[in-house]
Specification:
By secondary structure, this protein is mainly α. It has 7 helices and no strands. It is elongated. It is found in: Cytoplasm.
Length: 142
């Protein structure tokens, strides 16, 4: 952006160095805040968060450090809450269709396939009585 405004490189470097010194530019703090905000607000998993940080120019090491701050139990709980919310609108679907859609949702949000499958199976089994999904015949299971 500074180059677009025809600011000489040496001046831009000096300004950016000064901003860093006084704490106005702190990539580590940005990465940590981004991970926290996007995980809580959008329910994104580590893979999606890593991609977002990379697109925003955050150094891989800083991104890794920020992602390590995300508690695996919190990530699992967030994925579980996403599945529970989505299941409420899937009552009329076949179990396999619901599973496929839930897997797609969690994959797009950056959750690993193994974790996603485990959570989905558990939630489908747990919520079966409350939200029975249709069997392939189109009838509710007994």
């Amino acid at each position: 952006m500074l180059a677009e405004r025809e600011i000489p490189d040496e001046v831009a470097d000096e300004v950016l160095d000064r901003f860093t010194e006084v704490g106005l530019i702190n990539d580590a703090a940005f990465a940590n805040a981004w991970v926290e905000s996007r995980h809580r607000g959008r329910g994104l998993g580590k893979r999606a968060l890593a991609q977002e940080l990379r697109r925003r120019g955050v150094d891989d090491e800083l991104a890794r450090d920020a992602l390590e701050e995300l508690d695996p139990e919190q990530e699992e709980q967030t994925a579980r809450e996403l599945v529970r919310r989505k299941l409420r609108s899937m009552r009329s679907l076949d179990r396999q269709v619901a599973m496929r859609r839930l897997l797609g949702m969690l994959a797009r949000k950056g959750y690993p396939a193994g974790l996603a499958m485990t959570i989905i199976k558990q939630e489908l089994d747990t919520t079966h009585e409350e939200f029975p999904l249709l069997d392939p015949s189109g009838l509710e299971p007994d």
